[in-house]
Amino acid sequence: MNAPWKPGAAGPRDPFHAFVCDDHSFDMVRAVAAEMGWAPEKVNKGGMRNAVQSLSITASPQILFVDMSESGDPLNDINSLAEVCEPGTVVIAAGQVNDVRLYRDLVASGIQDYLLKPFGADQLRDALANAQAVFMAPRDAAPERPHMAVAVIGTRGGVGASSLATSVAWMLSEKKKRPTALLDLDVHFGTDALALDLEPGRGLTDAIENPSRIDGLFIERAMVRASDTLAILSAEAPISQPMLTDGGAFYQLMEEFRSVFECSVVDLPRAMLIQHPHLISDVQVTMVVTELTLASARDTIRILSWLKTNAPNSRVLVVANRVHPGSPEISRKDFEQSIERKVDVLIPFDLRIASQAAKLGKTLAETAKGSKVGAACSSLLEEILGAAQADPDQPNGKTAGKKGDSLLGKIDFRSMMPSRRKDKATALED
């Protein structure tokens, strides 16, 4: 992710700090700072190293001048500076290396300007005036597209909800080029980072333990980058330590995602859904992932009923995953009749593609390009985007049964697989 200094961020802070390496620069910067009405004592000696140490324990200024003359690895040192700078800081660097590639790399990393030493007082004044104008400029206009949040819920363990969550996040970020956050709320056994061949880090654990720390800077530091447009927040919390939380941290994280990313994908375990129902309140699209089995039919009915009551404004998609090419446990027609609505997308089962994705550390959608599974994943993406843009006044879901019928009261699960039960009875008689 780019360096966290973003022009236009608000917040009380000192107007100017400087860290320089030599006496001549020290005297010149102090004099120009005084001319601009800034406190000369905010000009310090010590260069980049002192800047990183000082800003790690104090608030960042509006404008930061840092001398990189003693830096052996300028780009790495700039990244270290980015770790301790608050959003909104405008950074001017100075150094003795006259290299256009270095200049471009520094600007790409978030630096506002780079002054080649020795520089004059006029150059410094111009650079500081430009930095001041950048800081005072209004924030960028809000994005044309509103934030889209997608929750992925598996009806049962092992139906592949996490696999599809990572695939949806990858497709939104890579195919649609939308900055996307992936939040894995299975804090003990989550697999989203593993599926992307990433280390989960401690970001989610820290957020749960210290919700008050959650802000834009925390998001910048805590999330693990999968690509330029995809970041993930997950955990592998010790299974000997239960996570005691009221869910406030999760809600705050999703609020921060709305200001930083265009899309959020939340891998939401069933148990977390029950414990923290407020997490689904502002989600535009809820994806219920299931298999064509008797147990999944029962739990799909229960989850759909829960969503109708607790998240009436969320558009619900039912996705049948890992559908075998032979006869499934329940046919699609019988499954749809049992849940009283259509299955929106059917993802076929392909052991070779699933195994390859796991070995390569890539998402199912990326690995399955050009296959039936890949085509189904693309259809899923379009269904999600269509659901997010649907008229909220329209009925939620595509009903297959009669309106007003009770979901749980109408279904006779025992009659859904007569041939199997008959065979079993015959075997027992024999």
Q: What's the quick description here?
A:
This protein is of the alpha/beta class.
Keywords:
18 helices, 430 residues, 13 strands, eight-stranded mixed β-sheet, 16% strand
Note down, in words, how this protein is organized.
With 430 residues, the protein is α/β, with parallel strands linked by helices. It contains 18 helices and 13 strands. The protein has helices spanning 23-35, 47-55, 74-84, 100-108, 121-136, 161-174, 192-195, 203-209, 216-222, 248-260, 270-275, 294-310, 332-339, 351-360, 364-367, 372-388, 407-410, 418-429, and strands at residues 16-20, 43-45, 63-67, 90-95, 113-116, 148-154, 180-184, 224-227, 230-233, 263-267, 285-290, 315-323, 345-348. Strands 8-9-7-10-6-11-12-13 form an eight-stranded mixed sheet, with helices on both faces. Strands 2-1-3-4-5 form a five-stranded parallel sheet, with helices on both faces. α3 (74-84) links the parallel β3 (63-67) and β4. The radius of gyration is 27 Å and the shape is elongated. It comes from Sphingobium xenophagum. Residues 388-430 are annotated as: Disordered. Keywords: ATP-binding, Nucleotide-binding.
